[in-house]
Each structure stands twice: as structure tokens, then as C-alpha cells.
Specification:
The protein is of the alpha+beta class. The protein folds into three domains: 2-119, no CATH class; 144-186, Roll (SH3 type barrels), CATH 2.30.30.60; 194-286, Alpha-Beta Plaits, CATH 3.30.70. Strands 4-3-2-1-5 form a five-stranded antiparallel beta sheet. Strands 6-8-7 form a three-stranded antiparallel beta sheet. It has helices at 2-22, 30-33, 36-66, 71-75, 78-98, 102-119, 121-136, 176-180, 208-220, 260-277, 283-286, and strands at residues 144-147, 150-157, 161-165, 171-175, 184-186, 194-202, 232-240, 243-254. 54% of the residues lie in helices and 19% in strands.
């Protein structure tokens, strides 16, 4: 919205300049192209456009939430829709409300391009990054990504920034150019499911075959499990304060990425209860 307003303001400023330049070669009635009434209708048109685009995206998001299988795919179309609608509304406003001569229009557009290029270099870098993200699609709205120390679900991909919501419900705003120049880890790559890892520390003398069997069965009974993908249990020897221990990594897939941490907690709780019940570990070791 702010970028559209900036472009419109620059265009109308340069349009006035173009009128002054062309005044020597042709008689142009300034009031026919720029007038108070046309400015009023322009402002009103952009207000209506803003609410229309906002309402459209909210409706799409509403229906996307109704379909767990198509949620990520549908939400991935929202950034493209916003760009298309804003471009169309700006073109309609210029053509229908002002309808300038083609020569004047080209002069104004060229001036706008130069003015924008010099005045908003950082902004243009982020916008270019946003366009590249939409075409390259390293992630989509609804994906879980990790950028630096920030990890969360992508909620919006704008022209200037991308927003993710972290597990503690914090919104992180990342400039698009930064996303183009750094490594981005994508947990699900457009799929509804993703892999979840639960880590549990065990004594080195534990029966790994028995532990593996219990862990797999524990993951299978979780209400969040996605059974079309394999469940894997891995062990690694670790050292802490010159003491050796086993780290068990229970890797399974959650049916919906929004339940990622609930699934991780669920697997950990079920496995720990079963280990205590079968005396694989004791309360003293847990504490």
C-alpha cells in the first residue's frame, strides 16, 4: 500500500512536470489532466482498492484454513495476487481518471523510473528480492523456515519484507534482500507435513534394540503422526563432564506443520513414560 502510494505520488509529480515541459509545443489545459476532483477520486479509488485487496486476501486465507491439504498452496498465491491487483488498480487509475496523452505518459513514467532509482535504492533492492522470491519460490506462505537465529512459519511475503511467526508468537520481519543473500532452511518445502526430531538422553549401557522398539511404537500412537513417512531412531555417543551417555534421536513426520512442537512434546512424553514404566531409566536419572 505504501509503495503504491509512493509510485502514484511520484507519477503525478512527474506528470505535472511533463505538462510544463510540453506546454511550449502544445496547448494543454492543466485542469483537464490534474484537478482537485480528480485527485479526490484518485484518493477514494486507492482507499477502495486497499480495502478490496485486503478483503480478498482475508477471504482467500479463510478458505485456505478450511482445507488442511491445500492451505499452503492457496496461501502461496496471495503475494502474487496482491502484486497483480495493485498493478492493475494503478494502471486503471491513470487511464480512467487522468487519461494523459501517450507522449506525456511516457515522459512521466521515465521520470518516475529515474526518481525511484535514485531515491529508493534500498527499497528497490528489497522489492527485486521479493519478486525473485515469488519466481524462484525457495519457500511459500505456510512453510516453516529458519533464517539465521529465527525459525517460524511464513505468514506473508510482501514486496519489501517477509514476515514469519516464531513458536512463541513473535512476528519477525525480514527484508527480502537479506533472504536473497543468506542461507534459508525450509522444513517442509510446500508440503503440509515435516520431519520432527525428539532428543532423549539415555545411559550408555541401555538395550538399544528394546529402546528403538519402544520409541517407534510411542511415535506411532501419537495423534499428530503422519504414518506415510518412515519413523527412524538413531543413537549417538556424547560426552558431558567426562561422562559418556547416549543421545537418542526419534525422527518422525507430523501430519501438519502447525503441530510440530506439540508432536515433539507428545513423542517425548510418551517415550519417557514408557521408559520409566519398563525401568529402562529411573526417576533418579531423570532428575
Amino acid at each position: 500500500m505504501r509503495f503504491a502510494a509512493l509510485i502514484s505520488l511520484l507519477f503525478f509529480t512527474q506528470l505535472c512536470y511533463a505538462i510544463d515541459v510540453d506546454a511550449d509545443t502544445a496547448t494543454i489545459n492543466f485542469a483537464e489532466i490534474i484537478s482537485v476532483s480528480k485527485i479526490f477520486w484518485t484518493i477514494l479509488f486507492f482507499i477502495v482498492s486497499y480495502f478490496f485487496i485486503t478483503a480478498s486476501t482475508k477471504i482467500i486465507e479463510f478458505f485456505a484454513e478450511k482445507s488442511s491439504k491445500l492451505r499452503i498452496t492457496i496461501k502461496g498465491l496471495i503475494p502474487i495476487l496482491r502484486i497483480v491487483l495493485w498493478s492493475a488498480f494503478i494502471a486503471i487509475a491513470i487511464k480512467v481518471i487522468y487519461n494523459p496523452p501517450i507522449e506525456m505518459l511516457m515522459t512521466a513514467l521515465a521520470s518516475v523510473a529515474i526518481a525511484v532509482g535514485f531515491a529508493t535504492q534500498d527499497l528497490l533492492k528489497n522489492i527485486f528480492g521479493g519478486i525473485m522470491l515469488l519466481f524462484d519460490r525457495p519457500f511459500k506462505v505456510g512453510d516453516k523456515i529458519e533464517v539465521g537465529e529465527d525459525y517460524g512459519e511464513v505468514v506473508t511475503i510482501g514486496l519489501r519484507t517477509t514476515r514469519i511467526v516464531t513458536p512463541d508468537d513473535s512476528i519477525v520481519i525480514i527484508p527480502n534482500m537479506e533472504l536473497m543473500n543468506t542461507s534459508v532452511s525450509n522444513s517442509n518445502t510446500g508440503e503440509l507435513y515435516c520431519q520432527v526430531v525428539a532428543k532423549i538422553v539415555l545411559p550408555v549401557d541401555v538395550d538399544t534394540q528394546k529402546v528403538r522398539k519402544i520409541a517407534i511404537e510411542a511415535a506411532q500412537v501419537s495423534k499428530y503422526i503422519y504414518l506415510n513417512k518412515p519413523i527412524v531412531v538413531l543413537f549417538a555417543n556424547k560426552m558431558n563432564e567426562q561422562k559418556s551417555f547416549l543421545e537418542m534421536r526419534l525422527k518422525a513426520y507430523v501430519m501438519d506443520i502447525r503441530y510440530e512442537f506439540a508432536f515433539q512434546s507428545d513423542m517425548t512424553e510418551i517415550v519417557m513414560k514408557e521408559f520409566l514404566k519398563q525401568e529402562i531409566i529411573n526417576n533418579k536419572e531423570v532428575s
